[in-house]
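Purpose: get a first structural picture of the assembly so the mutagenesis plan has something to point at.
Setup: three entries, given in the order below. No constraints added.
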Amino acid sequence: MADESTFARTARRLGVAWCALLALMLSSLGSAYLKLGPWNLISGLVIAAIKATIVAWLFMRLRESGPLIRLVAVVGLGVWCILIGLSGVDYETRSLTPSAVQRPQQLLSPQAASQPH
Amino acid sequence: MTAATLLEPKDEPDIGKLGMWVFLASEVLFFGGLFLAYLYGRTHWPLGWAAASRHTDVVLGTVNTALLLTSSAVVALAVACEEDARQRRWTARLLALTAALGAVFLVIKGFEWHAEWDEHLFPGPSFALDVAGAQEFFVLYFVMTGLHAVHMIVGVGALAILARGRSRDREWARSGHLEVAALYWHFVDVVWIFLYPLLYLVQRHG
Amino acid sequence: MTTSYLDDGLTIRSWLTTTDHKRIAILYAIAITCFFFVGGAAATIIRLELATPQGDLVSHDAYNKLFTAHGVIMVWLFLIPSIPSVLGNFLLPLMIGAKDLAFPRLNLMSWYLYVAGGLVTLEALFLGGVDTGWTFYTPYSTMFSNTYVVLTLTGVFITGFSSILTGLNFIVTIHTLRARAMGWFKLPLFVWGMYATSLILVLATPVLAITVLLLIAERLFQIGIFDPAFGGDPLLFQHLFWFYSHPAVYVMILPAMGVVSEIIPCFARRPIFGYRSMAYAIMTIASVGFLVWGHHMFVSGQSLTASMVFSLLSFIVAIPSAIKVFNWTATLYKGSIRFDAPMLYALGFVGLFTIGGLTGLFLASLALDVHLTDTYFVVAHFHYIMVGGAVMAYFAGLHFWWPKVTGRLYPEVWSRIAAVIAFIGFNLTFFPQFLLGIEGMPRRYHTYPPQFQVLNLFSSAGAGVLAIGYLMPLVYLTWSIRHGARAGDNPWAAKGFEWQTRSPPPTDNFDTPPTVPDIVYDYVADEPEFAR
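Result (structure tokens, whole complex):
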């Protein structure tokens, strides 16, 4: 049973989190209009990760959850990382050479002329 | 031999909560495949990705993100209210508000897609952008936001039903089920948190 | 006297609306048996066609549809659900001392999803079938095939959710409903097997689901991310597909290993050798199994670096499996071995799984795989694991727990004869296929050069023998339901909670709570004879 001060604390925490989330969203939006090169993607993802952590930690209550629930979250993420990571090994070590059957517009992309990324 | 008794099932919320978290882990992998496809496309066709992303409606996308983040805070507040005897009277209204915010999100999404249809941004023979990879971006855009919308519809429905049940003091609308529904809603929010920069904010400065 | 779960409602409606895990297990058993025989019928026609070098029984297209049907049905509608959804559903709550699974109604929904998906898939077959192979590789499946691809994939999609929900149910059950004092290292290895399998079901199947959705979308709208003409990548499909489909084979084998780990100690009257390492091996197989999918793609255009990484990881994943084979063998040492049907099937499993596993290492070697891939060597390899391994273990489990499930004993002599016939038939069918593969006979072809005919004839003859081996249990097990001698609570003098209750069990599983032993599998070699 939660008493009023516990509720007040929880409500305040949620309020601060909400403000933080909106602020992070706006910073993500703002940073997209700056010319940061590859850092645009990185900053976007990092900000998203922070927002997701706030939601998971505070809203989804991972903060108060036992090790089992946290393990479930970590394992889910971890297996996804395996999917991306090992597929990435293939994509990073394979060159993309568009073939003649691909529509001309694919071949006109400057990306097609050299190794990707 | 040690004597053992049959374990009485633990309190409902723990079993339900664990069940929902395991389900959410599976959902990470469900959406996760789409993120792999996205990463493939972005790394191989960066110009197409950039050109295509600039044609998404960043205003509506940002508004929607704000709505969804707010709805997440609201449903978290609803669960907190349910756990406090003096605030319990607010739960049903907060649940309904969450569902309403979700519904507005879906309406705005509908407007976005309608506009994109008019601009010939749906993949197909009449696709408007002539940059390599732009069509691939929009394939993923519609699949990802579409799948997300399906999950939103389920969430809005569940929250609306729970709101109604809670306001009528139904037994099934008790705190364990609310917490589980809120977890699902937060997850849908987290997916959108990543969709927002990946779909709307690619090379906006160009 | 007292009633069992079988007496608790005698109408069909009571069965179709049950939430009793034991009844749901039987519902699954009936459904998968039907699908098994449909898949087996496809295999029969395939082996009849392959008895002669010419394509004289069916057309090219029909042959393609046959092997696709065989694969789709056997993998998704038979093997994946078989041990988990039949034996797992029935035994898991019993083995941990619970009354039911964590989510009994979800369990029933899983069955309905499975049946719905299965019926949609069957409908696609009857309407004309699909000819892409069970692997649905693009661009053939998206752009060129003129068959019922979308309908079949829809069926697979629906069935996938049955798997995910079953896995979810098992995971939550094992974590939350264990008897007091039953720690993780007092769990039967069958439960460990179910747990690891459930992890894979929950984490891998969703990737199949999204892949199938993308495939359906690309085929319906003729625009997608697997099409190189639009900048897509056909290999992306293969990465996504095999990310699920490799762990899926561990879904098929881990429950089988769990079954065998229950049977061998019982019929050797010895505790399992190395219990902890067996449990760790199960978890290691499930984890490392997520890291090897690229070994299905060595010749697909995948980069050499990635292929080498996947090859190395594939060698590593064989290690925990080998540990298990050593431990089963060591369990037999100085045992008091009885060759009842469950033991015959279990021993058959150990030998055939070993052959299948070792031949997997040949395929994991890059240079060898270039020669062996897409030949009958691969076909033989996976049939040794899936049929010689998983199906044999399924039959082992059926025979071991049949008295518990039905309260009846089956004819001992016939059961042993059937096990031996199946073993002989299996080897006669599939061993020649290793040789055919090495000699270069491609898979998925319905004609072949005449010099391959002798081995193909052996294989087809073997298939006939194997079929007899599978039909016999169908006859005598069904017979035993009405006419078999009544079984006691523990006809095999086995350890485990399920043997501490009646045969068949009451609806709530236990009249009195079971006692947790100090050691699992505390079999003693000189214990008195089985009290059948």
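Residues 112-117 of chain A have pLDDT under 50 and may be disordered.
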